Amino acid sequence: MTWARLKELAETPLSGLAQPTRSDWIFALRTVSAGLIALLASYALKLDHPQWAMMTVFIVAQPVAGMVLAKGFYRLLGTLAGGLAAIGITSLFGANPWLLVTVLALWIGVCTLVSSLLRNPEAYGAALAGYTAMIISLPALGQPHIVVELAIARCAEIVLGIVCAGVTSRLILPKLAADAIISRLKRSILDLAEYAGGAFSGGDPASLAALQRKLIADAQTLAEMRTYARLEAPSFATRAHSVRRTIGQLLWALSAARALHSHRRPKNAALIPMRSELKAFVGELAATPGALDDTRPWVARLDAIASKAREMPELPNDTGPNDNGEDKVGTITRLTIAGDFAEALKQVMRGLDALRSPVSRTSSERGQPALVVHRDYQAAWRNAVRAALATLLVAIFWLTTKWSEAAGTVILVAVVSSLFASRPDPVQSAWGFFTGTLIALPFAFLVGQVALPALPGFGWFTLFVVPILVPAALGMANPRHVGVATAFAINFLAFLSPHQQMIYDPGPFFAGSASILVGILIAIGVFIVVLPADPWVTVERISQAMREDLARLCLHERIPRRSAFESLAYDRINQLMPQVQQTGRKGDPMLGGSIAAVTVGLEVLRLRQAQLNSAIPRETVEFIGNFLRGLARELLFRRPGEPQTAPVAVARQYAASIAQRSDRLEMLQIAASLRIIAAAMEDYPDFFAKGRA
């Protein structure tokens, strides 16, 4: 997930509007103040490149204090790693420029590979380690003895900026990630209630799909923001367990709500009261102001609903000639899912209470649900090769032409091709960066080349710069403009290059600016031409990974943890969504199929658990094993367009036969799981088939 997305979710809903909110103004004024403090401290310490300290403040600036600390921490780690790499590479290969740039390009490739496999802010730190080595090593070309001095200076400037940004974000009207997590979770519960209400009443499919996507993204955001909160205050570490468990329960509730939507046509009278009670509950929850201030009455009602859903209903003994037990199985299916939804939502509310009023956990609560993320190794290798190759080719051009300003071009190619490599649309992200940089150019010229040489001094600097940087910081607080605004602020300071003594020297100014702009444009061209990413190929690759996960659930000797499967599946769906958006309507069935795959996986796990139940007849246990092996073959080997093989038809037939000969609840639940799996695979036949990826 991108930093822009995290900002959007951490801010209030008004942050996306055109008018800045109070929170936006606080963020903007705090960021500009921290930048000025960092610059003033750089002057006092007589640092060689004081602009880096002020730029760092804007680079790590985030609306939430924990996000600033996290990005600052990984920026520091990345800078240290890049500095050590620069010292080592320059010391070993500095005598040979061609060998030096080759090794640096390989280092950038390795760091881009690692960055593509990680998530923000860890991914940012890994990418930074790559191009920091380039920033330090290139000025030392031909004079390797100064590389240690350059690395120390660079680290000092970065540390100063991080300290200023971190201290101000934590002390000046802070917005804490711990509070943002609670606020985000409360909104997620209400969104879930709204989604469930629409699902129970047959709401607008487009609105339900949008809510579903938002809930998936929110669950992933909660997992990432947990790290930020722990950096804000070590005391939050005691609540990390509650966050992890609550995320798992939120995903479970979402799966159950979606399944209830898919099975929303009740036929049996035993289901109608349950459905009405759930519909009334979520409707009242979503419509009650301050409903979650006290969760106790809601938890009590959910507990009663979940208990009622687990009771054996009165089922009809006679079925019609074409029914084949479908009504009986359908009733148990929907009651089971309704009970799952009520139980999961109850646990989410208890998790909210645990976050607001943490208590020491007992030994029985120590098992934390796994939060697993998807790693696209093929895309990571593509990004690494592209970044290394682009950097090397531009560096070769620089060495061949001996154009001194081309060093800046080499650095910008390395920065952009590494930093934006793993974005869903790297071309668009890089173009936004170019736009912000281009807009910054005339402002930097007027201030740095015209105003400040005539009116020197920190007071005049503040007078000229603050009216420019405050609107830029307001743009950084707005998710719609964060990319362009951040690029503007950073490159305005880079072009300006503030020093205590500013001089009029337009030649180097325009030469350096041109090298930066050309470097960004070359990187954009690299994204377009060199190993371009095809969104549909990525969609198929993620879908194939999800099918392989389902096959492993069927075949693995040890039954995987439910939370681990759900976490990984929803993370893959979250990665799938921006790719699907680029494929148009062609990708909609893949997104729907991926969500249905979560339901299939949960039912497979239910069947695996049933195999361990000693009350289940041996014949049924053997059938489940054979069915799961056949399902795995279906998932791994059937190709799109080919007819579905026996497992789907057999699942329906066996489910109907169970309903005809048994009234035991555990047997009917097995029949319900078989029917849900068959229905999901029939709804999305091409998703549950092996593609090209």
UniProtKB/TrEMBL annotation:
<feature type="transmembrane region" description="Helical">
    <location>
        <begin position="484"/>
        <end position="503"/>
    </location>
</feature>
<feature type="transmembrane region" description="Helical">
    <location>
        <begin position="430"/>
        <end position="452"/>
    </location>
</feature>
<feature type="transmembrane region" description="Helical">
    <location>
        <begin position="158"/>
        <end position="178"/>
    </location>
</feature>
<feature type="transmembrane region" description="Helical">
    <location>
        <begin position="125"/>
        <end position="146"/>
    </location>
</feature>
<feature type="transmembrane region" description="Helical">
    <location>
        <begin position="51"/>
        <end position="69"/>
    </location>
</feature>
<feature type="transmembrane region" description="Helical">
    <location>
        <begin position="384"/>
        <end position="400"/>
    </location>
</feature>
<feature type="transmembrane region" description="Helical">
    <location>
        <begin position="406"/>
        <end position="423"/>
    </location>
</feature>
<keyword id="KW-1133">Transmembrane helix</keyword>
<keyword id="KW-0813">Transport</keyword>
<feature type="transmembrane region" description="Helical">
    <location>
        <begin position="25"/>
        <end position="45"/>
    </location>
</feature>
<keyword id="KW-0812">Transmembrane</keyword>
<keyword id="KW-1003">Cell membrane</keyword>
<feature type="transmembrane region" description="Helical">
    <location>
        <begin position="458"/>
        <end position="477"/>
    </location>
</feature>
<keyword id="KW-0472">Membrane</keyword>
<dbReference type="Pfam" id="PF04632">
    <property type="entry name" value="FUSC"/>
</dbReference>
<feature type="transmembrane region" description="Helical">
    <location>
        <begin position="99"/>
        <end position="118"/>
    </location>
</feature>
<protein>
    <submittedName>
        <fullName>FUSC family protein</fullName>
    </submittedName>
</protein>
<feature type="transmembrane region" description="Helical">
    <location>
        <begin position="509"/>
        <end position="531"/>
    </location>
</feature>
<dbReference type="InterPro" id="IPR006726">
    <property type="entry name" value="PHBA_efflux_AaeB/fusaric-R"/>
</dbReference>
<feature type="transmembrane region" description="Helical">
    <location>
        <begin position="76"/>
        <end position="93"/>
    </location>
</feature>
